Amino acid sequence: MARAATTTDAFNAVAEPRRRQILDVLAGGERSVNELVEALGIAQPQVSKHLRVLLEVGLVAVREEGRRRMYRLEARPLESIHEWVKGYERMWNARFDRLDEVLEQMAKEENDGSPRRAAKEENDGSPRRAAGNEKEEGHGGSNQ
User: Fold this and answer.
1) The whole model's pTM is what?
2) What is the chain's Cα-based Rg?
3) DSSP assignment of 6-35, as one string?
4) pLDDT in tens, 16-36
5) What sign does the CA torsion over 40, 46, 48, 52 have?
6) Distance of alpha carbon 73 from alpha carbon 59, whole angstroms
7) What is the pLDDT of residues 69-89, one digit of tens each?
8) What is d(CA 144, CA 139) in angstroms, rounded to the nearest whole number?
9) Which of 5, 10, 54, 100 is the most core-located residue (most Cβ within 10 A)?
């Protein structure tokens, strides 16, 4: 029997990876339990258990077709998840936009030999090696 918490809302229902897999399959159209079993490669009792939870929160609907029960995705309960994720989407987009700007600037500097690149190349030269030598000398002195 499913815990009460998993059947209270769409967030809890989709927290289980198998249920998300079922929703992914149903996004492609109506399926019977046997078709879901075949598509997912899991036992029929497990599929039925997950479908029961998804039915309780309204993420799937079922209709009778002769002796078969056909399940389909009901997207409306996913709206609350989508609304919640949209806030993060704005943040991710802003970060990706900033990353694009940085990468474009780096590519531009690499292609045109800008002063910043030349300064960086100078800093990659002797001052760094000298700092490395000081460490070696300091380390060597402590062994004597």
Assistant:
1) 0.61
2) 29
3) GGSSHHHHTTSHHHHHHHHHHTTS-EEHHH
4) 999 999 999 999 999 999 999
5) negative
6) 6
7) 999 999 898 988 988 888 888
8) 9
9) 54
